[in-house]
Design goal:
About 20% of the residues lie in helices and about 45% in strands. It is of the alpha+beta class and about 150 residues long. The chain folds into two domains: about 1-30; about 35-150, Immunoglobulin-like (Sandwich), CATH 2.60.40. It is elongated, with a radius of gyration of 23 Å. It starts with a helix and ends with a strand.
Length: about 150
């Protein structure tokens, strides 16, 4: 009986080792070209593509009264479609986790749909009053395993 138990344990361990090796090879293949680029946008009116349909230009950003950060962005859409702000963040410096925006105001209305052409988008977040750096950062997933973090510094 002990002999069968030992063989079962060895067989189970062998299967686990094979599965771990297969999983490791899959992860290495999937992330072999993984890359994150940092892009700092300093020029006024510089348009940055964020998808095949959308490009964005920062109009203004800053902290207003009551520690409320506001960013006003011009989104140019080639065609009508959804705008996701799930990858938009308020960067308050390296010692603080970025704030995420919860909702956007598109052309004066809360929503997620941009029309073809130019759309004014306003996002707001509560800013840390002890910080002095407030920048809009957008993560762009432009190719499988390739990401670009666009930070508007002006």
């Amino acid at each position: 009986m002990k002999h069968k138990l030992a063989i079962g344990i060895i067989l189970l361990a062998s299967v686990l080792i094979v599965l771990l090796g297969w999983h490791k090879a899959t992860v290495e293949r999937l992330y072999q070209d993984f890359e994150i680029q940092q892009v700092l946008v300093t020029a006024k009116d510089e348009s940055i593509p964020i998808s095949s349909n959308l490009s964005m230009t920062l109009i203004r950003q800053g902290v207003q009264h009551r520690n409320q950060y506001t960013a006003v962005v011009l989104i140019h859409a080639k065609r009508r479609g959804a705008l996701s702000i799930s990858q938009w963040y308020l960067d308050e410096g390296s010692n603080r986790q970025p704030n995420q925006f919860l909702e956007a105001e598109i052309n004066g209305k809360k929503g997620k749909v941009v029309n073809a052409g130019d759309n004014q988008v306003i996002v707001r977040a509560v800013a840390d009053p002890t910080k002095h750096v407030y920048r809009l950062a957008v993560v762009v997933h432009y190719h499988p395993s390739k990401y670009r973090i666009v930070t508007f510094t002006r």
